C-alpha cells in the first residue's frame, strides 16, 4: 500500500524500495533521537499540491536543525517517481506524500532522505463531513518562548512528534477527536497536526483569524493559501493573539491541514460551537482553488 523512494546519488530519479522490508539502519538518528524533519502533502491524480510551499517550509525546518537539505530538484524527481509507482496500483486515489529527512546513521555524517506515498485514510473525509470535537490542552510553554529559546525548535516540523501523538491519544481517550494546544499564558496555538482558523462575521464584513506565528506555531501551508484566496475574495484577515474565548465567540472554527483540508470544530471541551455549513462550503471552495 505504501511506495518508498529514497534519494540516492546513484539514482537521479530516486531509488524505489520495498516498503514491506526493513530499509533504515537501527542506528539512524531519525529513529534513535527523532533527529530530522518531514513534510506531508496531498497528491491528486498523481500531482502533489503546494509542492513549492512544502519544500520551502521543510528547508526552513532543516536549517533550524543545521541539517543538510537536498536540492528541490532531487526531491521533485523522487516525488515524481513515487507518484508514478503509486498511480500504477491506485489510479485516481488521492495520496499522502511524506518527505522524510534524518541526520542519518550515527557517525556516518550522511543524511537519510526518502519519499513515501500511501492512500489518504478514509477517516479524513469523515472528519471534514462530520466535524471535530476537540479538547484544549496546555502545551506547557508561554507564547513568547519561541523567541527566547530557539533551541526548542518551535515552529519547525521535526520528527519529534511523540507529544503531538500523545495529545491526540489523550483526546480520544476522553471522547474527543482532536486537540487545540494553548500556551501557559492562555493563548490559542495550533492543533497537533493542523492550524486553527476562525471566522467572524459582523455587519456583513467577514474576517478570518489565525494565531500569530510569533507564538511558536508551525506556519501552515494550507492556512496561508486559504488566507491569500480569502483576501482576494473580499475577506478581512487577522493574526492573533487569540484566546479560548475567541473560539467560543466565533461564527465558525476549523482545523486546517494539507491532508484533511478544512474540518469544522463542533465542540470545545464539551461546549458546542456553531457550525456554519455556508461558511464551511465557501472556505472549502476557496481551499480547492489554491491547491
How would you describe this protein?
- The protein is an alpha+beta fold and 291 residues long.
- It folds into two domains: 3-120, Aminotransferase class 4, branched-chain amino acid transferase, N-terminal domain (D-amino Acid Aminotransferase, Chain A, domain 1); 125-290, Alpha-Beta Barrel (D-amino Acid Aminotransferase, Chain A, domain 2), CATH 3.20.10.
- It contains nine helices and 14 strands.
- The strands form two sheets. Strands 7, 8, 9, 10, 11, 12, 13 and 14 form an eight-stranded mixed β-sheet that branches. A six-stranded antiparallel β-sheet has the order 2-1-6-5-3-4.
- A hairpin with a 2-residue loop joins β1 and β2.
- α7 packs across α9 (277-290).
- It is globular.
- The model has no long low-confidence stretch (mean pLDDT 95).
Amino acid at each position: 500500500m505504501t511506495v518508498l523512494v529514497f534519494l540516492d546519488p546513484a539514482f537521479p530519479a530516486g531509488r524505489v524500495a520495498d516498503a514491506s522490508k526493513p530499509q533504515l539502519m537501527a542506528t539512524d538518528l531519525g529513529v534513535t533521537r527523532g533527529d530530522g524533519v518531514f513534510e506531508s502533502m496531498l497528491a491528486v491524480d498523481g500531482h502533489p499540491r503546494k509542492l513549492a510551499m512544502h519544500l520551502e517550509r521543510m528547508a526552513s525546518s532543516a536549517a533550524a536543525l543545521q541539517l543538510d537539505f537536498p536540492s528541490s530538484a532531487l526531491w521533485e524527481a523522487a516525488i515524481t517517481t513515487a507518484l508514478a509507482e503509486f498511480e500504477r496500483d491506485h489510479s485516481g486515489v488521492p495520496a499522502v506524500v511524506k518527505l522524510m529527512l534524518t541526520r542519518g546513521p550515527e557517525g556516518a555524517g550522511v543524511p537519510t532522505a526518502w519519499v513515501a506515498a500511501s492512500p489518504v485514510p478514509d477517516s479524513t473525509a469523515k472528519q471534514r463531513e462530520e466535524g471535530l470535537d476537540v479538547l484544549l490542552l496546555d502545551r506547557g510553554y508561554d507564547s513568547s518562548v519561541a523567541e527566547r529559546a530557539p533551541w526548542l525548535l518551535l515552529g519547525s516540523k521535526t520528527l519529534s512528534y511523540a507529544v503531538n501523538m500523545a495529545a491526540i491519544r489523550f483526546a480520544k481517550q476522553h471522547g474527543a477527536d482532536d486537540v487545540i494546544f494553548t500556551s501557559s499564558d492562555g493563548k490559542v496555538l495550533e492543533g497537533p497536526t493542523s492550524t486553527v482558523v476562525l471566522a467572524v462575521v459582523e455587519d456583513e464584513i467577514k474576517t478570518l483569524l489565525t494565531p500569530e506565528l510569533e507564538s511558536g506555531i508551525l506556519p501552515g501551508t494550507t492556512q496561508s493559501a486559504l488566507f491569500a484566496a480569502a483576501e482576494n475574495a473580499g475577506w478581512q484577515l487577522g493574526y492573533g493573539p487569540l484566546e479560548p474565548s475567541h473560539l467560543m465567540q466565533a461564527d465558525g472554527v476549523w482545523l486546517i491541514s494539507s491532508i484533511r483540508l478544512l474540518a469544522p470544530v463542533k465542540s470545545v471541551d464539551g461546549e458546542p460551537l456553531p457550525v456554519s455549513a455556508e461558511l464551511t462550503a465557501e472556505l472549502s471552495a476557496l481551499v480547492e482553488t489554491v491547491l
